[in-house]
Amino acid sequence: MPEMTVTQASTHESAMLEHARVAAALKARRQRNTRLTNVVAYSVLIVIALIMLYPFYWTLITSFEPTGNIYEAKLLPKGFSLRNYAEIFSGTTVPFWRLIVNSLVICTLGVTLTVTLAALAAYPLSKMHFPGRDLIFYAILVLMVLPNESGLIVNYITTIKLGLLQQTNPVVDAIRQYMAVVLPGLASIVGLFLLRQAYLSVPQELIEAARIDGAPELTIWRRVLLPLALPTIVAFSILEFVAYWNSFLWARIMLPDKNMMPLSAGLLELSGTFSTNSRAVMAGAVITIIPILIVFMLGQKYFMKGLEGAVKG
Amino acid sequence: MTTTPRRVSRREQQRQGGTGAKVTIRTTLIAYAFMLPFLALLVLYHTWPVFFGTYLAFTKYNIISPPQWVGLENFQTLLKDEQFWSGLRNSLKYILVVPVIQILSILLALLVNRPLKGIGFFRTAYYVPVVTSFAVVGLIWTWMYQQGGPVNAVLMTLGLMNEDRSLLNNPATALTAVMFVTLWKGVGYYMVLYLAGLQSIAPELEEAAMIDGATRMQVFWNITLPGLRPTILVCSLLSTISAIKVFEEIYVMTQGGPAGSTYSALFFTYSRAFVDFQYGLAAAAGLIIAVISIIFGLINFKLTRGGKTDA
């Protein structure tokens, strides 16, 4: 308050200057604060990134080491050799390339069929009128909420009863075993919801117009709905690729023939038989992660969107 | 919400008068043809297990001979089985992960929601464990937890551990070690969901509060957190249920050991079915786990007030 009398005496300009000075000081303080919080934020971000990524990095560099104390914490590899990578392809009863082929077949089959089935089934549920539509929709909703603890057990029994594990001739056996791995996952409720949601945003007039032109429903689905739902289809395909590539439990329970196992399942098999050379298993782990990282990086935008959609329903 | 477009177009159809009985039957047939493969597999692999699994819980069954009805015998056996109880206890202990993982992922989401340079890299980095298989993640952490390994090195440097011994081989630490892996692998997943939740909160609300002189903390407690409530419900529900059903990390890392310290309820079910071939007993255990998950689901629903936002 005493300053007021001083400022009263001062000229208009100096009052303006005073204002500017205070404003500048405030701005500087705010900037200093922002800088400070940014420094803190970045430090926290970096520490967490280290915790998230170091285990992968550590596995990678250890897989390149030919010898030495295997479990030691380190920042750089103590030596470099591809011996462990060579060993994983030759040193076991199940060759690693076979696991890679199995994974590729299972993923291709699984992703193609899952996406196609969901894309087909979502069409009537979003764009057609027929008796029983609401009933089917709510039945599927209930299934999604119901916990399915017996899934593993009953699906195992079903697969055996369907004769998918019978042994007759090598080629047919292989096809049957691949089907045994993918069949239980093919009806994806989440996928159905995602695609139904995508179709709902397609204008009904577009479909009616095609119908009036006499286009068969399958053509409308292929020419109108699929192109317009493409972003969702891509996102869902990526989600399914990751899921099929990473699944191991069902395959390990199901498959009598270790030669038919996908990579993730086979890796656990290797870690059992390779107990003397963990570095080779580490090499296998690195090879198993790489395709997922590539797909994830390429489709990251779609992937995150798909995931958000999946939970928002 | 979703029924509105249907009603409108059905009314339109009636007005057009173009939907004769013949067309309806044709449309119905086409509709079911589109859904047939999906529905067939859905019934076989999703619906059938619910019913047949429930039935199996009251039988003795080994696949070779037909199921034999035994009434409540399986459940009586389970109540007396100390292994089942210890599995159940460990699964319930596992719920401790839920609040930790939820709080951390909310904080992480707030952190990566800031418009900082290079934030995309951090979001991606935190998500890498999520997209990696438990087969790989479990193996990596089994190696990391070895005696003389990186985890021990860090813990000893920080003075949190005074003796270098494998954390997974020690009954006192094994469960916590496995829990940490669950946390590490899952936090990025929930972070992304919370990020989506944060972005659905209207920024005008927060700005208006700031202009009215609210502190950051006040904005967080009174606007951000209530706005996140639907996401919190979904996330805590998902993580509670997956905690009760914890299995894959245990399967890869400890196989229930050492001394049963990581033996979970679902691990019990798995070993009864696929090691001992007692499918009826396993189904009964599965049914109990299912009922417990439903109860915890309802508790979650209550605690988050049905995920309703006040605003």
Automatic annotation (TrEMBL), chain A:
A single BP term in Gene Ontology: transmembrane transport
Family affiliation: Belongs to the binding-protein-dependent transport system permease family.
Subcellular location: Cell membrane
Record keywords, A-Z: Cell membrane, Membrane, Transmembrane, Transmembrane helix, Transport
Topology in membrane: Multi-pass membrane protein
Keyword Ubl conjugation: no
Protein's recorded name: Putative sugar ABC transporter, permease component
Transmembrane segments: 39-57, 99-123, 135-157, 177-195, 224-245, 280-299
Pfam families per UniProt: BPD_transp_1
Listed CDD domains: TM_PBP2
InterPro entries assigned: MetI-like (IPR000515), MetI-like_sf (IPR035906)
Domain ABC transmembrane type-1 per the UniProt entry, residue ranges: 100-299
Keyword Membrane included in the entry's annotation: yes
GO cellular component: plasma membrane
Signal peptide feature range: none
TrEMBL record, chain B:
GO cellular component: plasma membrane
PROSITE patterns named in the record: ABC_TM1
Superkingdom field: Bacteria
CDD domains given in the database record: TM_PBP2 (cd06261)
ABC transmembrane type-1 domain span: 88-300
Record keywords, A-Z: Cell membrane, Membrane, Transmembrane, Transmembrane helix, Transport
Subcellular location: Cell membrane
TM regions (residue ranges): 29-48, 94-112, 124-144, 174-198, 219-244, 277-299
Alphabetical GO biological process terms: transmembrane transport
InterPro entries, sorted: ABC_transporter_permease, MetI-like, MetI-like_sf
Membrane topology: Multi-pass membrane protein
Protein family (similarity comment): Belongs to the binding-protein-dependent transport system permease family.
Protein name: Putative sugar ABC transporter, permease component
Record organism: Deinococcus deserti (strain DSM 17065 / CIP 109153 / LMG 22923 / VCD115)
Lineage: Bacteria, Thermotogati, Deinococcota, Deinococci, Deinococcales
